[in-house]
Specification:
about 180 residues, mainly alpha, 2 strands, about 5% strand
């Protein structure tokens, strides 16, 4: 969105970035800018395209490493953990380090990684283990999934910041 200080600088617009830049809509759209409905359609299209890619990779993982109904669902666990780890890296890179196209975050984050991770399947896996008389395994799996996914996001976010943000500060200092 554009913020305009009409009292002191009527002809100067200052760009301010909203919390979610891909959802921002210009107050005064330029002649070539997409309409809000077109912008929403673009966002939905890239999320859908990314979701298809992410879901295909996840499905491929389940074909390569299938899980028996009463076994610990390692494939789903590692899919969720690696997806959350990738989300930690992605969010630092696209929100704190680089300026990217506004459709990058919905495509990669919501689409690809949202389609790749599968917490609904983790819930079904837990229920399946409980239904097959494996309550300890089911509860261990549910707790491990939640703890490992949250830890993966935290660790990769922290490590990515340590890896890329000092360089960004050094580059600005030399400029």
């Amino acid at each position: 969105m554009r913020a305009v200080d009409r009292q002191t600088e009527p002809a100067v617009d200052r760009q301010t970035e909203p919390a979610a830049p891909e959802t921002a809509v210009e107050q005064r759209p330029a002649a070539h800018a997409p309409t809000p409905k077109r912008r929403q359609a673009e966002i939905l299209a890239v999320i859908a395209a990314g979701g298809v890619l992410g879901a295909c990779v996840r499905y491929g993982a389940t074909l390569i490493w299938p899980t028996a109904p009463t076994a610990f669902p390692w494939t789903t666990l590692w899919t969720n953990v690696t997806g959350c780890a990738a989300m930690g890296v992605l969010m630092v890179l696209v929100t704190e380090r680089f300026t990217v196209h506004p459709l990058t975050r919905p495509f990669l984050g919501t689409g690809v990684l949202g389609g790749y991770t599968t917490f609904s399947t983790a819930t079904l896996d837990t229920q399946r283990l409980l239904d097959h008389g494996r309550p300890a395994t089911g509860l261990l799996y549910a707790a491990t999934t939640l703890l490992a996914a949250c830890t993966a996001i935290w660790v990769t976010t922290t490590l990515t910041r340590l890896a890329v943000l000092p360089r960004a500060h050094a580059e600005r200092g030399q400029a």
